[in-house]
Specification:
By secondary structure, the protein is mainly α. Helix content is 48%, strand content 7%. It has a domain at 30-159 and 191-264. It is built from 7 helices and 7 strands; from the N terminus they run E-E-H-H-H-H-E-E-E-H-H-E-E-H.
C-alpha cells in the first residue's frame, strides 16, 4: 500500500466493528451503523429546534421520525439491491445478505423516497404541514448525510476512479469493487470525502439563502434537492462501482440525481407561484397546537382595536408562529 504521505489511508477491517462485552455477552457494533445513527440523532435534534422556532410542539419531530426513519432505511436498501442485483443474486449467494444493511449498501435516493413517504404519513398523523417539516429537515439532512459518509470510509466503499492526486484514497487490494489488473498501490478518488465537503458547504449555502429570502412552503427542501442532485450527478459519474443498469450510457444513479435536480426546480417554481407570503402556521388548519401555558385574558382586549391581516391571514406586525390559533391537537 502507499505511504501516509502519498494518499489518504483507509481504516483496516478491524475498524469496521467495535467489540462490546456486557455481562458476559459479546457484541460487535458496526462502525457504519454508528455513523448513520449519529447522523440521524444530529438531524433529529436540529430539525426539532427549527420546528420549535416556527411554533411547532417540542418533540413532535419524534412522532414523524417513527415513520420516516424505518421507511427511509427500507427504501435505501431496496434501491441499492435493485440497482446492484449481481451483488446479491448469483449461484451460491446467501439470500439473507439482502437484509445485511450493516455491511453497507444503502442508496440515498431510495432513502429519500422511503423517508418522504414516512414523513408524509407522520405529518398527516401530527397535523404538521408536510412542506414545513421538509424545510426544517433540509439542512439537517445534508449534515446527517455528511456524517453518515464517514461510515463509507470505514467500510472502504464509495470511492472513485484511479487517481494520482496527493489526496487519493488507499483501498485494500482485496476489495471486490476494484477492477482486476490494477497495481496494488493504486489510489482512488475519495468520493466519500468529496460528498462530505459538498454537503457541509450546502448546509451553509441553504441556511443563508433561507434566512436572506425567508424561504418557506417547501422551497428550502427544493434547494436541498437541487444542491444534492448536482453534487451526486458528478460524483456518480466517476464512481468505480456504479449501478449495474444504465440508459443512454448514463448510470441509473446519475439519472436519479438529474431527477432530483429537476424535481427541486419544479417544486421551487410551483411553490413560489402558489404561495407568495409566509406560512400562517406550521400546522394544517384545524390541527394547530396550543401551548399548555397559553392564556387568553379577554379583559386585555380592546374592542376598539382594529387588526389588519396580510394576504395569508396573518395579523400585521405579528410573526407567523404567534398568529396561529385553534384547539386542534395531534
Amino acid at each position: 500500500m502507499s505511504s501516509w504521505y502519498a494518499g489518504i489511508p483507509s481504516p483496516g477491517p478491524e475498524w469496521q466493528q467495535i467489540p462490546i462485552d456486557i455481562f458476559g455477552l459479546h457484541w460487535r457494533i458496526q462502525t457504519y451503523a454508528i455513523c448513520i445513527l449519529i447522523g440521524i440523532i444530529v438531524a433529529a435534534i436540529w430539525t426539532s429546534r427549527r420546528l420549535t422556532k416556527r411554533g411547532a410542539e417540542p418533540g413532535v419531530v419524534l412522532d414523524i421520525l417513527l415513520w420516516a426513519v424505518p421507511l427511509g432505511i427500507i427504501g435505501a436498501r431496496l434501491y441499492h439491491v435493485v440497482t446492484h442485483p449481481n451483488d446479491y443474486f448469483y449461484e451460491g449467494a446467501n439470500p439473507w445478505a439482502v437484509l445485511y444493511i450493516w455491511e453497507g449498501g444503502n442508496a440515498i435516493f431510495g432513502s429519500l423516497i422511503g423517508g418522504a413517504v414516512g414523513a408524509w404519513i407522520g405529518c398527516r398523523w401530527t397535523g404538521l404541514r408536510f412542506w414545513t417539516f421538509a424545510d426544517a429537515l433540509a439542512p439537517a439532512l445534508l449534515l446527517a448525510q455528511a456524517i453518515g459518509r464517514l461510515g463509507n470510509w470505514f467500510n472502504q466503499e464509495l470511492f472513485g476512479l484511479p487517481t494520482s492526486l496527493p489526496w487519493g484514497l488507499e483501498i485494500d487490494p482485496t476489495n471486490k469493487a476494484i477492477p482486476v489488473g490494477l497495481p496494488e498501490d493504486t489510489l482512488f478518488q475519495p468520493l466519500f470525502l468529496y460528498e462530505i465537503i459538498w454537503n457541509v458547504i450546502g448546509v451553509i449555502v441553504i441556511v443563508w439563502l433561507e434566512r436572506k429570502f425567508r424561504l418557506q412552503w417547501g422551497k428550502v427542501f427544493a434547494l436541498y434537492l437541487i444542491w444534492y442532485g448536482l453534487g451526486r450527478s458528478y460524483l456518480e459519474s466517476i464512481r468505480i462501482d456504479p449501478s449495474e443498469f444504465s440508459f443512454l450510457g448514463i448510470p441509473t444513479n446519475v439519472w436519479a440525481a438529474f431527477v432530483a435536480v429537476v424535481l427541486g426546480v419544479v417544486i421551487f417554481i410551483v411553490q413560489s407561484r402558489r404561495h407568495t407570503g409566509l406560512e400562517p402556521s406550521p400546522y394544517r388548519p384545524g390541527r394547530e397546537w396550543v401551548r399548555p401555558d397559553a392564556e387568553v385574558d379577554s379583559d386585555d382586549t380592546d374592542p376598539d382595536d382594529e387588526v389588519s391581516a396580510d394576504d395569508d391571514g396573518v395579523p400585521a406586525g405579528s410573526s407567523a408562529a404567534s398568529a396561529t390559533s385553534g384547539h386542534g391537537s395531534k
